[in-house]
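Still learning. Any example?
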Amino acid sequence: NWANAATTGNWANAATTGYRANAATTGNWASAATTGYRANAATTGEGANAATTGNWANAATTGNWANAATTGKWANAATTGEHAVAAALGIEAKAKAGIGGAIVLCHRNDEGHLIHVRASKVGENGIKPDVWYSLNKSGEFVETTKE
């Protein structure tokens, strides 16, 4: 619990498991992964990926081809680089991406059953850069706040 891992350097990875356990990396192709309630992963660098699983677990990346993925309830994914994808796949999850990026979202019922999945590049289907989105019950993108 509250365990943190941080690395700096190309191809350097950080991983943690536990309540509020965080992982952060800086460097090209350096990845960060966490598992746990409120566990966060963040990366900076070309092709640097962040992945989380757990309620309120967030993933954020900065860099071209740097992807962020989350699977927990109320978990958020954010990217800022070109060709980067933010995928938020949990209940009431949110995602945002920068110019040249894309988002992937799903809508699940309260039991976690998959109802809708939708993806879009920024600039298509009304998706704006650096704006948080979720999917509504009809499977449509809805602008939202991170909170």
